[in-house]
Amino acid sequence: MQDSSQPQFWEQRYQEGVMPWEGAELPAPARDFFSGQVPMRVLLPGCGSASDMPPLHAMGHQVLAVDFSQSALDLARRQWPGLADKLMLADFFQLDLPAFDCVFERAFLCALPIAMRKGYADGVARLVAPGGALAGVFFLAQTDRGPPFGIAEAQLEALLGNWFSLEEKQLLPTGLPVFRGQEHWMVWRRRKLDLDQALTA
Fold first, then answer.
1. pLDDT category of residue 197 using cuts at 50, 70 and 90
2. Of the chain's two ends, which shows fewer C-beta atoms within 10 Å, N or C?
3. What is the distance, to the nearest Å, from the Cα of residue 190 to the centroid of all Cα atoms in its chain?
4. Which terms are listed as keywords in the entry (predicted)?
5. pLDDT more than 90, % of the chain
6. Predicted confidence (pLDDT) at residue 201 exceeds the cutoff of 70
7. What is the largest CA-CA distance in the chain?
8. How does DSSP classify residue 32?
């Protein structure tokens, strides 16, 4: 099974324990960002074992972690039993929820086949309230093979630019080997008026 758009792809990897994307801690810039915010509603799409959920919850944020792999969520529930009610088995692309103050990106965009990137952008634009943020760790790399699928910064800007403005970016000095030192902390601010709306207004 080689199609990373399907739950079975991830089920197999979690069941076999092949999870090189797991094990990272919440990076310092993320801690600085989230600790400086008033309590927010935060969505973690493609959460896997949801290791970023406990520190965000401890800062007072209302976190919902979503994945379409039952095995990933089973692992998350074993690791964080006190937060099991914050985990949801669901497909990000089918979510019908009120907009969040923030969507936290971590190894989700790079897990998706390249053809699904437009759907990702549309989804986060819909799920982040105007003035809110898409914040997280992005794998900026020139590679079409994956997962993880890297994306060039110019491609990411083209993907998100109609809805978001880049507010913050920095290279993370440490990270998981699978991402080869090419992870960047980024904060994208959701515009209150989309560019296409502005052009037609």
1. low
2. C
3. 15
4. Methyltransferase, S-adenosyl-L-methionine, Transferase
5. 76
6. no
7. 53
8. H
Residue type, 76: A
- At 162 the pLDDT is 95
* Residue in 175, 173, 172 with CA at minimum distance from that of residue 186: 172
The count of residues in the chain is 201
Contacts of 104 (CB under 8 A, 6+ apart): 42, 43, 44, 52, 56, 135, 136
| C-beta pairs of 84-87 under 8 Å, 24+ apart in sequence | 86/50, 86/53, 86/57, 87/47, 87/50
pLDDT mean over 41-45: 98
CB 61 within 8 A of CB 72: no
| Structure tokens given for 62 | 């209302």
Helices (H), 59-105: 70-79
DSSP-assigned letters across all residues of 116-173:
GHHHHHHHHHHHEEEEEEEEEEEEB-S--SSSS--B-HHHHHHHHTTTEEEEEEEE-S
The residue with tokens 């529930």 is: 77
User: Going by C-beta distance under 8 Å and a sequence separation of 6 or more, which residues neighbour residue 36?
Assistant: none
Model confidence at 195, pLDDT cuts 50, 70, 90, reads: low
